[in-house]
Amino acid sequence: MTLKNDLYLRALRGETLERPPVWMMRQAGRYLPEFMALRKKYGFFTRCQTPELAAEITMQPLKRFPLDAAILFSDILVVPQAMGIDFKMKESVGPWLEIPIRTEKQIEEIRLPEVEISLDYVFRAIEITMEKLEKRVPLIGFAGSPWTIFCYCVEGKGSKTFDIAKSFCFGNPNLAKRLLQKITDTTINYLKAKVKSGVSAVQLFDSWGGLLSPEDYHEFSWPYIDQILEQLSPLTHTVVFGKGCWFALEKMAESKATALGIDWTINPELARTLTKNRKVLQGNFDPARLHSPPKVITKMVDEMIRRFGKDKYIVNLGHGILPNTPLKNATTFIEAVVNWRI
Ligand code: CP3
Questions:
Q1: What is the chain's alpha carbon radius of gyration, rounded to the nearest angstrom?
Q2: pLDDT tens digit at each of 342 positions of the chain
Q3: Which residue owns the Cα nearest ligand 1 atom 22?
Q4: Closest ligand 1 atom to Cα of 77
Q5: Which ranges of 65-138 does DSSP label H, i.e. alpha helix?
Q6: pTM (2 decimals)?
Q7: Rounded to an integer, what is the distance from CA 79 to the centroid of its chain?
């Protein structure tokens, strides 16, 4: 498969480039008017579960901006859904589970799904998206980290602190680990099937890893991510994004991950030092900074690239783009990278 633009893959391979590649986490999202138009017509999981719609939404930001990668429109919660955990998306609440997972019986009853069957709509969405992309740029697949999925399953909804999930975990560590392992096994099968369907890389979102102390992170999050890396890294490029997890970068740099995603609470120099320049880094523009005047954005992007270095680097935000981001500023961010030269 020869891509017209393989900058993202060349950066992952650590090649010397003219400029780094750029994409944005949640690039298919609510800041796009064309996304809002489809959002009015279809519920969230209908958009995820209808391959034509998921493929169309994936393509929306690619039609507007000169991005170097596409990421499949989907959600991390399709994995627990396939395990029979009935997540809904509630308007102005977010992810919602009527009966959260908090007992041994519930955990024992969870069966590992045949992902090829229960998540078939994702693989079909990948196939349709690949056709629409016409080899323009690579397609990224993703999953939540087992810890982050565990947080939603036990809490039953979004939270800033996930106190219920953490308390359950520390009160019942062995039981918690049984659930974490079931999520891990399902995620491995799911990501393997995504690779088979054609994605060029997979990214794990550990959005809530940063809620754990470093010691707890290495007990309840990292070992499960590491299992996924062991299984997937021989098959494809793997990227781990750990929100607030800079304390784990040293350990992450010893893993099989191709690249590590970081947020804006760590500076480029420290991230390079902690990872001993062994890994490709991805990040880390504060999404709220897309509210700065365009001139400031361009200057900050230039500085960011110089500080990370143009190679072994993928420009991205430090977390998902905010819904109220002005389109002009998103354009400025991307064009600042595309036009960047040493
Ligand atoms: O990056 C991309 O463009 C790919 C699409 C993507 C979505 N969700 C689409 C989405 C990705 C990679 C995700 C991952 C995801 N989903 C994460 C990890 C990344 C992160 O942001 O930390 C998490 C924690 C979820 C669970 C989830 N799904 C939440 C917390 C929400 C927001 C709920 C809200 O009301 O704000 C969602 C919904 C969601 N997933 C939207 C999008 C574009 C909002 C869309 C909508 O409401 O129509």
A1: 19
A2: 699 999 999 999 999 999 999 999 999 999 999 999 999 999 999 999 999 999 999 999 999 999 999 999 999 999 999 999 999 999 999 999 999 999 999 999 999 999 999 999 999 999 999 999 999 999 999 999 999 999 999 999 999 999 999 999 999 999 999 999 999 999 999 999 999 999 999 999 999 999 999 999 999 999 999 999 999 999 999 999 999 999 999 999 999 999 999 999 999 999 999 999 999 999 999 999 999 999 999 999 999 999 999 999 999 999 999 999 999 999 999 999 999 999
A3: 207
A4: 26
A5: 78-82, 104-109, 115-118, 120-133
A6: 0.97
A7: 14
